[in-house]
Amino acid sequence: MSDVTETNNALVTIYSTQSCPYCVRAKQLLTRKGVAYHEIDLGREPAETRMELIARTKQRTVPQIFIKDVFVGGFDQLYALEQRGELDTMLAG
Questions:
Q1: Where are the domains of the chain?
Q2: Which of 2, 19, 30, 36 pairs as cysteine with 10 (C-beta 3.0–4.6 A)?
Q3: 10, pLDDT greater than 90
Q4: Cα-based angle 31, 36, 15 (whole degrees, multiple of 5)
Q5: DSSP 30-91
Q6: CB contact at 8 A, 43 and 17
Q7: With bands split at pLDDT 50, 70 and 90, how would you rate the model's confidence at 1?
């Protein structure tokens, strides 16, 4: 990944796995918009990381997307924000 799309200082954090097509779609949407994101691959993290995420969000699926530490949901929710024109507002706010 280039520094343009993946950075530790990004406003967006995506918890993902390598085999997840919705994770790929979420990253593609953000990249297309020129939004930097920080990706955390749960397949490479200790099991405790996934358990902490489940406790925090009450969700077991990926991707799990946060904008400025606000849990957005998965790809469907991210895409819905984009379709309603609310994603840019969240990113700018």
A1: 12-92
A2: 36
A3: no
A4: 90
A5: HHHHT--EEEEETTSS-HHHHHHHHHHHS--SS-EEEETTEEEESHHHHHHHHHTT-HHHHH
A6: yes
A7: very low
CATH of 12-92, one of 3.40.30.10, 3.40.640.10, 3.40.50.720, 3.30.565.10: 3.40.30.10
Using one digit for the tens of pLDDT, what is the confidence trace for 38-57? 999 999 999 999 999 999 99
| 37-41 β-sheet, strand order | 37-41, 12-16, 64-67, 70-73
**pTM score:** 0.88
HSE, CB side, 13 Å, CA atoms: give it for residue 35: 25
> Could you tell me if 77 and 25 are in contact, meaning their C-beta atoms sit under 8 angstroms apart?
no
